[in-house]
Write the structure tokens for this entry.
Amino acid sequence: MTSILKSSSYYTLANILPQAIGFLFLPVYSRYMTPGDFGIVSAMETLTAIFSIIVCLSLNRAAQRFYFDNNDATVRKSMLSTLFISTIALAFLFFILALLAEPILQLIFESIDFYPYFLFCIISVALNSLSLIPIIYYQVSEQPKKYVLLHLSRFVLQILLIMFFVVWETEGAMGQLKAVLISTSLFVPIYLFIAYKNFGRHFDFTLLKKAVYFSWPFVPTLLVAWILNLSDRLFIERFLGLTELGVYSMGYKISMAMFVLTSAFTLAYTPIFYKLANSKNQIEAKIKLYQYSTFAAVIFTILVFFISLFSKELFDLVLDDRYSKGYGILRVIIISHLLSAIMSITSVLYLIQAKLTKLNMYIALQAAILNIILNFLLIPPFGMYGAAIATVLSMILLTIIQYHKSKAGYFVSVPWWNFSCLIFLLLAVIAMYHFYLEIFPIFSIISKICIASALLVFSYLKRNYIKSILLVHGELD
């Protein structure tokens, strides 16, 4: 656990610091960007997510998995070099095809011009794909300090450019996209240098075929994840307009604070998981994996509670009034982040370890179909809340099916009954405040502080008791 927490602290720094600084600038964005501008940025972020999934065929996932199949340094370098060269070729192909597909792509967001918005997005995605293998290399080789340096240096440049174009030049959405494109372009030589120094220039076509065979099922799977998390923005833009999309996206963006915190742990935990899952003593390995994942899931749940509890105060104090309705969206959508975070350290890794990527794809497809249907049914009558509810319901279905099907592969049990009781209890408290108590501001904030403090003190005093309930295989080492 100590090694995970140490590495996690570096990944947390790389992920939380940019997000934290981004949150500090949200009041600035809310004043220098109209909800319509923020809607355009959100729409392009949605496209970025789609394109990023397609452009490299998830070869970075293959690098993450295949790195641990062989301890020979030469073989590992050959694998990384092959995949990096392949991502360059795929990025160029993607850029050409995206330009040729202009009439089709324009149909996705009809109210946003292809030039320059779509074009800036396409170029940024193509160039950013060159960062995937170098970043994975630092993660799997357990070099979190270099991982942090790479992430933070690029972020600092990007935030400075955003402040220049958005605040100083008042270019709105255009300024945001321009800043991302410039910062991405300037880091391409750094990625090429990392690859040249650590991977070499070897290309193994046989290895590439194995990698593609392993990784291609991730493409539809990740597209499904995009449908669950981002496709609602297409429906909102179509049914409600860019202004509503901007408000919804603000609530969604702040809810991602939880996802950033949990993903830092996941990044550190993933290589540890693979080491334990491939170790000889599987009894001891599965006990440790159970302990780590259960402990993390409890922390994730409490974290979600704190963010939801104080979300109204956060929106009232920090953001422009035009975005005030976003806190309700946060409280709904963050539930899907919690389920996703728990799956990322349990059933997702179980299926990948067993190389059941096709099964994972079919599972995700079912949730995606449900999400599309629910978006059509719920957004027209319930607006933004309909989109958020559709996402949560789809994620619940995905969680149930994925956990059940993961028993067919490498499997470690998860105490879902205990988690469910804890989640429902905390959600009941949030609902009580949202619908009844927050109309009394002074009482609301004082009681929230008391509840949060009491929960922290109780968790600390009863930590051994909580472990004995949740960790039925033994105490955390």
Q: What stands out?
A: Residues 33-216 form one domain. The two ends are 7 Å apart (CA to CA). The CA atoms of residues 313 and 445 lie 8 Å apart.
